[in-house]
Amino acid sequence: MKDVIKRFYDEVLNGDDLDVADEIVTPGFSPRGAGPVGPEALKQIARYLRSAMPDLHFDIEDMIAEGDRVATRWTLRGTHEGDFFGFPPTGRPVEVRACVVFRMEDGKVAEIWPVVDASSLQRAA
């Protein structure tokens, strides 16, 4: 399970290899409960983040797996060059921290629950 989550970050989000989404998320994957589902939902997230920070990079700090869940703690770094959750571009370096719990199903990501450090998000804007 950890390998799938590493691919989620390393290949899709960091590496911008959107085709990997087809291999690692379920057809019903819906991180927001609205909009696209399945691999297209992950691809949309990756495109949005990359438009906000073309040089973005997620560093996984911790990863714990138990049962059908994987928890990660990560730091996102990049340069704020596009809209980022409603904040206009600043051209400044960004550092955002979060913890995310993934639910796995048949070796793929089925659900995701992120908890973003609000203070680091505000400093990013």
SS-derived structural category: alpha+beta
Helix segment tally: 4
What's the rounded overall pLDDT mean? Answer: 93
- Main sheet? 4 strands, antiparallel
Query: What's the arrangement of strands in the largest beta sheet?
Result: 1-2-3-4
Which percent range describes the beta-strand content? 25-35%
Number of E strands: 4
Shape: globular
In angstroms, what is the radius of gyration?
14 Å
Q: Flag low-confidence runs.
A: none
Give the H and E element order. HHHEEEEH
- The end-to-end span amounts to 33 Å
| Helix coverage percent | 25-40%
Top keywords for this entry?
125 residues, alpha+beta, four-stranded antiparallel sheet, 4 helices, 4 strands, 30% helix
